[in-house]
Give the backbone structure.
Amino acid sequence: MFQEYDVIVVGAGHAGSEAAVAAANMGSKVLLATMNMQTIAQMSCNPAMGGVAKGQIVREIDALGGYSGIVTDHTMVQFRMLNKSKGPAMWSPRAQSDRHKFARKWRNLLEAHPNIDFWQEMVRGLIVEEGRCVGVVTGIGLEIRSKAVVLTNGTFLNGLIHIGEKQFGGGRAGERAATGITEQLVELGFESGRMKTGTPPRVDGRSLDWSKMEMQPGDENPEKFSFTNTPNLDDQVPCHITFTNKEVHETLKTGFDKSPMFNGRIRGLGPRYCPSIEDKINRFADRDRHQLFVEPEGRDTCEIYVNGFSSSLPEDVQYKAMIKIPGFENAKMFRPGYAIEYDFFPPTQLNISLETKLISNLFFAGQINGTTGYEEAASQGYMAGLNAHLKINEREPLVLKRSEAYIGVLIDDLVNKGTKEPYRMFTSRAEYRILLRQDNADIRLTPIAEALGVQNMTERMSRVEEKTSAIKEIRKFYEETSIAPENVNGYLESIGSSRLKQKVKLLSILSRPKVSNTELEKVFPPLSNFMSKFDREIKVMAETNIKYEGYIQKEKEMAEKMNRLEKVKIKDVVYEEITALSAEAREKLKTIMPRTIGQASRISGVSPSDISILLVHLGR
């Protein structure tokens, strides 16, 4: 009935969809197995992509040949570049998506791929032979064989939904949990744990009083996620902001005795940075109000997502509190919020390629690794699918350095440090933020994807080469063109910058704080004429490179210093025999088995003196 596939991907959420695309675009024959074809790439929680650090990840996936950015551009209803008041290292794109169109676009792209087949059924087990994963077993007992398997089970592994004192099995609202895989993996020697996440109520937008809320429109000139030629966004849909108050908090407190979070029924740890509303009230008792983002689920639906009001309290308590929020006095609820507990596997059990250490040719990606968020899941999925293809073709895995991508930071953190709570990406986790900006993801990563052999990269590489050439051309103009005091002193005085006494090169003017290329164009026509042939993205990136040149160079030097440690390979070391190492270091190194000294240096519990001892042992 079935051919033998190169790669089977279990689960068709954000991680699974990107995993299938990655392997298929490398030439593998892929089977994407899902319990429900109607929920491929569904936005189970908030209808948005991107955000702080997450937006950078989406652009990186796109630069490597993934589809998340393309799908987002085709289906977004609002775009905002966050953190524009800060430096460009912090700028993060975020899009409000049409949830139904997002999933439909993903399914269309997957179905259009000649290398991807589908099977709709629960996978309840793996076929493991001589320490290698060679296929899956479905719920009705079918055995489907493959050369590698990628597990992207999301919140479905023994998922348990909580609403007040009610609890029932499920992977998300209206869908059953997946069973069998956790039990088999534990039997094979894997360690598992429980995590928790939650979602807020959905309400009828027709029942809300928008005049009592603050409107939050999109950017005047919306940008895009993908570096390909995706459509521009017109006719944006606004979001709104409102706040809870003391009365809302007091009403919510009446249900605390029935809260599964407070009475011990939920054992899994939830995301620290996305707490439920009851958790916020409990932890921040001194605060009289909390901000809520009221977000549309799409352009053609009245369904509204109440971002910031995630809850697992009884549904009647949720409703009584909600109608005391300004603008929600007459709110009609579509469904209450709920919490969900699910199994995960501590990611220190993985190699840096996301292949498991215990079973070869078995890869994990997404929430099964303890992460939270569509973007974190999608990036792991893409890397797991890519590396599954490389493994079965006896090629070296793609390992992105911390200085090359936020994706590299994410995977390095998971594998070397592990996580005991749902891991979420922040810009603060990256040491090289100026290098890892959202605007240069294609320059950083597209050449890597092309060199690997990812399909359809020719046009992308042409764009990268054109972009790189244009940025060099702009810099050369700034280096060679002089500007006279009478052309620029009025502008410099207006921004509190010192006047010129003689002609200087444009480069020295743009390097000053507060000076912008846009304003210089207004006062210096030769610059305006020259820059008219470049689009806005190129101009902004060229300006950033000039303004932050010193910082960029410093980070490059730091990265190179660290990369020298990445070149020192570790092979066949028996850590128990190196008695000079601390006991904790021996235990951690033996468990994680780092591939390089650089990786070893980032393991929690391994000190600089342990690294020195290890270098001596390796004859370095």
